[in-house]
């Protein structure tokens, strides 16, 4: 058993011995301990599905992850923007600490009664979430301004047709560009795909390994945006001649989902 897992099991034992669930509250000591353990699990790239269930048990439903969120493909712009923010936040250590806050608002906006575009929104901590066309994370960092997207650490995630990782390295440039890993290693060249350490592999193998890292719930969300025909043709980089500077939502979420997988694979490989 790997050392991080032994540490987690020890912490879970300390957290759960003698704890009752009569007072389910996001402010309880039990809840705070469980979330601390869960953050450690995520930082070690371990499957957090069981810890998510434990968090729900001690913290209540407000922060429970849900796969029932309406698809952002045909939803409001606010729903789409919050979906993107949640995916970007999941790729940084700081972002995972308030990912539940983003997803809670995402659920309300995406599944609630249609009210058109909101001109302004706030986070529970009082920070501005949206003002006009500008979005901010719960920590106050700008998430989106115009067509430019940023991570929770302030690093640019997307500008124009260029995608970047949280460490500033380029993931992809141009609609038909090749993919790279955060460590600079080529991920895709033509129809060939590679592991973070340069070994030739297949798309299905990469996706399978990536899903084993992020867990089943997050995997379902990611694969939803990756077209099956792309995977079967062993190319996640199909060029669409009708894809102009302003990309469609499907293509945007597809590229972001691919980048999520490549980012997680690199962290494990390192």
Characterize the structure shown.
This protein has 270 residues and is α+β, with helices and mostly antiparallel strands. It has ten helices and eleven strands. It has an eight-stranded antiparallel sheet with strand order 1-2-3-4-5-6-7-8, with helices on one face. The protein is globular, with a radius of gyration of 19 Å.
Provide the residue-averaged pLDDT: 75
Fraction of residues in helices? 40-55%
The number of E-state strands comes to 11
Query: Which shape, going by the Cα principal axes?
Result: globular
Proportion in β-strands: 5-15%
Report Rg: 19 Å
Strand adjacency order, main sheet: 1-2-3-4-5-6-7-8
How far from one another are the termini? 18 Å
Largest sheet features: 8 strands, antiparallel
Descriptive tags:
270 residues; alpha+beta; eight-stranded antiparallel beta sheet; three-stranded antiparallel beta sheet; 11 strands
Give a concise summary.
The chain has about 270 residues and is α+β, with helices and mostly antiparallel strands. The chain is built from ten helices and eleven strands.
Q: Topology of this protein?
A:
Blueprint: H1 3-16, H2 29-43, H3 49-59, H4 77-89, H5 93-97, H6 99-111, E1 120-122, E2 128-131, E3 134-136, E4 142-145, E5 148-150, E6 156-159, E7 162-164, E8 170-173, E9 188-189, E10 192-194, E11 200-201, H7 203-214, H8 216-224, H9 228-232, H10 249-269
Helix pairs in contact: 1-2, 2-3, 4-6, 4-10, 7-8, 7-10
